[in-house]
Amino acid sequence: MKGVPVAVVMVTYESAADLPRGLAAVGRLDPAPAELVVVDCASTDGSAAVARASAPPGIRAQFLPLAENVGFAAGMNRAVALATAPYLLTLNADTELSPDFLAPLVARLESPHGRRFAAVTGRLLRERSDVPGDTEPRRLDACGMRLSWTWRHFDRGSGEADRGQFSAAELVFGATGAATLWRRAALADVALEEPHGPQIFDERYHSFREDAELAFRLRERDWEIVYEPLAVATHRRRVLPERRAALPAAVNLHSLKNRYLLRLDHQTAGNFLWTLPATLLRDAAALAWVLLRERSSLPAYGWLWRNRRELVAHRRRVQRRRTAPARAVGRWFLRVGAPLPTGSTSTDNLRPVTPELR
Questions:
Q1: Is the distance from CB of 232 to CB of 125 less than 8 angstroms?
Q2: pTM for this one?
């Protein structure tokens, strides 16, 4: 099979060093995607030119350089709008896909039991150590997303040695935007209706936690998200909680602001009450940290207060579209994963069934 109806969509910002390697891996995919769309957020390192020069031959490509850094969420919305394929692979420039990454993901979405699968994410690994003779197992980067009772979302297995603990396909709460295949119809179903057009990723988030927020909206509309271990990629992740003090001030500010946006839109009476002790402690710790160590993030609180009326109106719009009962979403505060529907767990013949495009 030479092609599948997948558009690889990327948002770049100061990504020139990563793009040649990442796009070369896209070119080695078998089956190959039908499209490539790259949106650059006003990089100053030549990312837009490097993307054009590194685009793999034989794949229809589009490039959109923006005049300002609008963030991952808005940039990805523009990329999705340009793409035409029914499946969309969101991909970070610092992610290197294995050649057979796409096949099992597409097969999951097209399986008889996969009609309510909104997304399939793979097994992301950290880069190997550069130490000669290092025989330690690879470190995991992300195997789907889990949700804690403090309303923190974590990449499953992040930083753990890969010893096969995530070797089975299963349902997960959410999926990282770094390398996940999405069903366009599901994204259209949950898109936010805004005055200037629908938003798949909430553009208020800019560039942090937007994939977790999308997971909530999908689950509130009865869509499922799947982890598929046969799809392997390497992610050179730079934004980690333990590196917060070294991250740009703007990243930390959005991280703080977005933790409250997530709860404002998706808390229900039930999960508010039983998560309240944990969230209060976490909020107090965050405020103390900002006051004592990270005063550059203080404007996040001011932004939330100034926009409080619009935030309440936005929550009402989101909650009006909910079709799943609150308990169907709330159960994910207690689960790391869940079994796939009966009959959809086999890994035999995991190849896409769509006709060739190229």
A1: yes
A2: 0.92
Q: CA 116, CA 219: separation in Å to the nearest integer?
A: 10
Which pLDDT tens digit goes with each residue over 103-153? 999 999 999 999 999 999 999 999 876 556 667 889 999 999 999 999 999
Identify whether the C-beta of residue 94 lies closer than 8 Å to the C-beta of residue 114: no
Scanning the chain, the segments in alpha helix (DSSP H) are: 19-27, 47-54, 71-82, 102-110, 184-190, 210-220, 249-266, 269-292, 299-306, 308-320, 326-330
Of 181, 165, 259, which Cα lies nearest the Cα of 225?
181
Q: CA 342, CA 113: separation in Å to the nearest integer?
A: 8
Cβ atoms < 10 Å from Cβ of 151: 20
The single-letter code of the amino acid at 267 is: Q
Q: Which of 221, 225, 222, 194 is nearest to 77 (CA)?
A: 194
A 10 A CB-CB count for 223 gives: 21
Supply 343's token pair.
């009959």
Reported as type and span, the H/E element at residue 89 is strand 87-91
